[in-house]
Design a protein that fits this description.
With 825 residues, this protein is an alpha+beta fold. It contains 20 helices and 37 strands. The protein folds into five domains: 28 residues; 169 residues, Galactose-binding lectin (Jelly Rolls), CATH 2.60.120; 237 residues; 89 residues, Phosphorylase Kinase, domain 1, CATH 3.30.200.20; 227 residues, Transferase(Phosphotransferase) domain 1 (Transferase(Phosphotransferase), domain 1, Orthogonal Bundle), CATH 1.10.510. Helix 14 runs antiparallel to helix 16, helix 14 packs parallel to helix 19 and helix 14 runs antiparallel to helix 20. InterPro entries: Kinase-like_dom_sf (IPR011009), LRK10/LRL21-25-like (IPR045874), Malectin-like_Carb-bd_dom (IPR024788), Prot_kinase_dom (IPR000719), Protein_kinase_ATP_BS (IPR017441), Ser-Thr/Tyr_kinase_cat_dom (IPR001245), Ser/Thr_kinase_AS (IPR008271).
């Protein structure tokens, strides 16, 4: 029977869609245009029963199509799809289905001999505290091992812990490079009383000995040795990092044919330097560096020190990257270079030294000298063994330092890309320990000087001994210090600015006028000054905060620049530069489309009642504060957490901003010394304005965060509070929240239409908020515990004890006066 017109249209659309995909893959896709076309590309969507296409147009096949399942697969495994409540930003393919293994399970792939990429895709399906594979499988309790042709790839591995520790995407790709001789056997082995799982398997062939022959010079230089390192053809490797330095992520389809993923280096790079933008860069690949080595976009973007007007400043510091790795393994470090600036076209214009783990890897690096000309890329391979002296997960450090021995025309460095690969040990093992969700960042800004500068410490020892032996000078030094104290205070601001000039972009006031089109577009105003929208010369949108010419020495400005210059986190606003010109002070940071949290909620009434959206934002803020407290070398206490100081980007990712009142202190310090109270009434912790409640510490930010999330879900809404309790304005407002929790009611904000899961999420936010606003700082959880509570289940949370005291608004005016930060936007 012929289909009715209403049914014919969807069929036609489906046919056209399939035709488009086939045309894209065969004619306009990656395989047709990339400089390298793999002999074998196998994409397995595990647990799926039909062909599917990912967002890049690649065709993923079901397991049955390749006939790779063992004969007993129905008994040793089962399939499952992710929860229908999947995260909207998670790719559908290959992450919406899984094969789950009850016992040892081996895929057998018939392959041609040669080196292959093996990529294993995982998605623990962690969604707002719930794991969505149904009652038969929980990814949190899944621990397993993976082996391949005699190599151990993973041992006691937890995808859930790894994803949480990364604080990145909810999905995970583990990439390995293995030599194949006669097919490939991939075995999953669940731990005792556990299950194993996998979402997708990729197998992609590569050029022969691509990662074993060495760099463009066919050498692998062993750091600390005069003998080159040899990678045998029986070696397996794991990709630990593949970064596009100074640029954005390059996805699989944007790669040069092997479907690699190049991530941004923002998380590994210690702040400083510049990332110039150059239009229409044409990379001139060579026989030694073919086009498949790295995409053109990797070689077209880079980081350098900048400071073109004052290049001698670059001699005072290094450009440094820190890469957290597993101890006890050899690593292949591949560095990519390409000079693209018009000003650098000849040898001896930019010369620098490469240090790896504080050892000289290459003393004289001149990209133009090695490559033979401008826009010709080169790449170098180094081998380094990382021991366990600094623990099981140390940082592998890479430093670039300007070399002035040959009087180059500029003191600067450059780096375009980094790849770090782990080599298997003598037992064929590549597996490291599971990553724990971080209490501190892996990127500890340990700015040690290179090897050739370490002799300075011996000189200092001699000086101190000499000074100590001349006791008669002590009195003179003390008197001199007292007489110069006032002068030092005056000069502190200028010294700080000189330091920041070495690390950040410094803009003139005239440049800011050009960026903001004479300050024509106002984003917001506050007691600090005004925020303007603008565009850099590369088209990037920015926000420019111009501070008022406040009296004093500009301590708030220095605080903000100092604090933000030490941070690099997805939930912390990125500092791009600053201006310090006479009385003109301004900060340039990334532009965020949705403005501040209070603006976002007021503009988006429907989203303001969306529990899941609010939860995502609240969790992101918690992670940002956790990073400030534990992820920086110096703990940063913000002291002004409120909706106006939380910015929201286009993906609804929250970012903590406005560090004008922040205070830096050592992590070992449990308390903070403050002369005056600082913060905003309504969010300021009680111990800040009255010491009767306890000592001021990083727990003050915890209190402000608790008030913030209670505010977000409407627990502090004036109309609601006064409706429920007309006397709430003069009492400790959580009184009525405790009463509602006891009655099992907390839908006063969202109404009765929300689902059971949404009610539980809202209740979890309320309970966490109540823990955070405990009057006594010692009763509040630290921010790492707050993140754990927010990510965990509601059943694991206890309702905190109801405070016996009341905080009346009447006590606030009697406290020391607040700083200007109470008006900050």
């Amino acid at each position: 029977m012929a289909p009715t017109p209403s049914k014919r249209i969807p069929v036609i659309c489906y046919v056209l869609f399939v035709f488009y995909i086939l045309v894209f893959v065969s004619c306009g896709g990656e395989e047709a245009t990339a400089p390298y076309k793999p002999d074998e590309v196998i994409l397995i969507n595990c647990g799926e029963f039909s062909f599917t296409f990912d967002t890049g147009g690649r065709n993923w096949m079901p397991e049955a199509e390749k006939k790779i399942l063992p004969s007993n697969s129905d008994y040793t495994s089962f399939t499952s799809d992710a929860s229908s409540d999947k995260e909207s930003w998670t790719p559908q393919v290959p992450y919406m289905n899984a094969r789950i293994f009850r016992s040892d399970f081996t895929y057998s792939f018939p392959l041609s001999p040669g080196w292959k990429f093996i990529r294993l895709h995982f998605y623990p399906c962690y969604y707002y505290g719930y794991h969505g594979y149904g009652p038969d499988f929980d990814a949190v309790s899944s621990f397993f091992s993976v082996s391949l042709n005699g190599f151990t790839l993973l041992t006691n591995f937890s995808a859930d812990l790894t994803v949480k520790a990364s604080k990145g995407e909810p999905t995970l790709i583990k990439e390995f490079i293995v030599p194949v001789h006669q097919g490939l056997n991939l075995t999953f082995r669940p731990a005792k009383k556990s299950l194993a799982f996998v979402k997708g398997i990729e197998i992609v062939s590569m050029p022969d000995r691509f990662y074993s022959k060495g760099g463009f010079d066919n050498m692998v230089s062993e750091v600390g040795s005069t003998v080159d390192f040899k990678i045998e053809n029986s070696t397996a490797l794991e990709t630990v990092y593949r970064l596009n330095v100074g640029g954005q992520m390059v996805g699989e389809v944007g790669d040069s044919g092997m479907f690699r993923r190049w991530l941004s280096d923002d998380d590994a790079f210690l702040n400083g330097g510049v990332t110039p933008y150059i239009d229409n860069v044409m990379i001139n690949y060579s026989e030694k560096t073919p086009a498949y080595v790295a995409p053109a976009y990797v070689y077209a973007t880079f980081r350098s020190m900048g400071n073109a007007k004052y290049p001698e400043l670059n001699l005072n510091f290094n450009m440094t990257w820190l890469f957290t790795v597993d101890a006890g393994f050899n690593y292949l470090v591949r560095l990519h270079f390409c000079e693209t600036l018009r000003e650098v076209t000849k040898p001896n214009q930019r010369v620098f030294t490469i240090f790896i783990e504080h050892q000289i890897a290459k003393h004289e690096m001149d990209v133009i000298q090695l490559s033979g000309g401008s826009r010709i890329p080169v790449y170098l391979d180094f081998s380094i063994y990382v021991g366990s002296e600094s623990g099981p997960r140390p940082d592998l450090r890479v430093d670039l330092y300007p070399l002035k021995d040959y009087s180059p025309s500029c003191y600067d460095v450059i780096l375009n890309g980094v790849e770090i690969l782990k080599l298997n040990n003598s037992d064929g093992n590549l597996a490291g320990p599971n990553l724990n969700p971080p209490l501190s960042s892996n990127l500890t800004p340990n700015r040690l000087k290179p090897q050739h500068m370490k002799g300075t410490s011996h000189v200092l020892v001699i000086i101190f001994i000499a000074v100590g032996s001349v006791l008669g000078l002590v009195t003179f030094i003390v008197v001199l210090m007292l007489s110069m104290r006032q002068r030092k205070r005056k000069n502190r601001k200028e010294k700080s600015v000189v330091m920041f000039k070495k690390l950040l972009n410094m803009y003139t006031y005239a440049e800011l006028k050009k960026i903001t089109k004479s300050f024509s577009y106002i984003l917001g105003k506050g007691g600090f000054g005004t925020v303007y929208g603008g565009n850099l010369c590369n088209g990037r949108k920015v926000a420019v905060k111009v501070l008022k010419d406040l009296k004093g020495n500009g301590e708030d400005f220095i605080n903000e620049v100092a604090s933000m210059s030490q941070t690099s986190h997805v939930n912390i606003v990125s500092l791009l530069g600053f201006c310090f010109e006479g009385s003109k002070r301004a900060i340039v940071y990334e532009f965020l489309e949705n403005g501040s949290l209070d603006q976002f909620i007021s503009r988006n009434k429907s989203l303001a009642r969306d529990v899941r959206t609010l939860y995502r934002i609240a969790l992101g803020i918690a992670r940002g504060l956790e990073y400030l407290h534990y992820g920086c070398k110096t703990r940063i206490v913000h002291f002004d957490i409120k909706p106006q100081n939380i910015l929201i980007d286009g993906n609804l990712c929250p970012k903590v901003s406005d560090f004008g009142l922040a205070k830096l202190c050592e992590k070992r310090e449990s308390v903070v010394s403050l002369i005056n109270a600082r913060g905003t009434i309504g969010y300021i912790a009680p111990e800040v304005f009255s010491r009767m409640y306890g000592r001021v510490s990083h727990k003050s930010d915890v209190y402000s965060y608790g008030m913030l999330i209670l505010d977000m879900i409407g627990a502090r809404n004036k109309e609601i509070v006064e409706t429920i309790d007309p006397d709430a304005s003069s009492t400790y407002f959580p009184d009525w929240i405790y009463k509602d929790l006891e009655d099992g009611e907390q839908t006063w904000v969202f109404g009765d239409e929300i689902t059971k899961e949404e009610k539980e999420t809202a209740k979890k936010m309320i309970v966490v908020g109540l823990w955070c606003i405990q009057p006594c700082p010692s009763d509040r959880p630290p921010m790492n515990k707050v993140v754990e509570m927010m990510e965990g289940s509601l059943d694991a949370l206890e309702i905190p004890p109801k405070p016996s005291m009341h905080i009346s608004a009447e006590v606030i005016p009697e406290s020391p006066s607040l700083s200007d930060g109470e008006e900050t936007g």
